[in-house]
Design brief:
The chain has 226 residues and is mainly alpha-helical. 63% of the residues lie in helices and 0% in strands. The radius of gyration is 29 Å and the shape is flat.
Length: 226
């Protein structure tokens, strides 16, 4: 549970950085819509933002902020998996988790989402932008974070025995992935070390290189020369 809470805190901090750049995010989407000749449709899904990023993004500033949004959504999705692994859930937590999973689904329709007080992301949009284009996409992350915060609050009240897996097994996907790298490397290193040890032992059994097929040094008489 502590790892889950830490991951959620980190995501909140990442979102704060993104929120400070909302104007840049909206400008990037506007540029992509112009390039795609797609000025009528609202931004309705994460999948649509991904498509704009892949096919209609023409400068590094726009790409950076769009990728920041997509990365945050991907991490929210991974955190949902982490929640699911931590415990089977009560009806309340299961409902909250299902809402989170639906919201961060690539094809979920975001157009009707609106984050309300205390969130002010929609207030920073013009009336036309909020109503017709970007109100849903800017509301997605804060709404999911709120649901996750509520999930954690409910889960902390559950008895310990409800957590049906141990902490190491319930690690967040990104933490598990990060740990997998060193372990795979560690799996290969012992073999390498064994090979080096075998070679070292072989060398120790062959002093002077006599058994390696190399030439023997010439015999010299005591106190004399050849």
């Amino acid at each position: 549970m502590n790892e889950v809470k830490e991951s959620l805190r980190n995501l909140k901090q990442k979102y704060k950085l993104f929120q400070q750049q909302q104007f840049t995010f909206i400008a990037a989407l506007e540029h992509c819509r112009e390039t795609a000749h797609d000025k009528i449709r609202p931004i309705t899904s994460i999948e649509q933002v991904q498509s704009y990023t892949d096919h209609h993004c023409n400068n590094s500033t726009d790409r950076r902020i769009l990728l920041m949004f997509l990365d945050t959504c991907a991490e929210l999705n991974k955190l949902c998996q982490c929640f699911e692994a931590l415990h089977a859930g009560t009806p309340v937590t299961a409902n909250l988790l299902q809402k989170c999973k639906t919201l961060v689904s690539q094809s979920n329709d975001l157009s009707s989402l609106r984050a309300k007080y205390p969130h002010d992301v929609v207030n920073h949009l013009s009336c036309d932008e909020a109503r017709n284009h970007y109100g849903g996409v800017v509301s997605l992350i804060p709404l999911v974070l709120d649901l996750m915060k509520e999930w954690v609050a409910h889960s902390e009240k559950l008895p310990r025995k409800v957590l049906h897996v141990s902490e190491p097994e319930a690690r967040c996907p990104e933490a598990t992935t990060g740990a997998a790298g060193p372990s795979q490397t560690a799996d290969t290193r012992p073999g390498s070390r064994k090979h080096q040890c075998r070679q070292l032992r072989k060398d120790n059994l062959q002093p002077g290189g006599r058994d390696r097929g190399g030439p023997k040094p010439p015999w010299r008489p005591p106190g004399g020369t050849l």
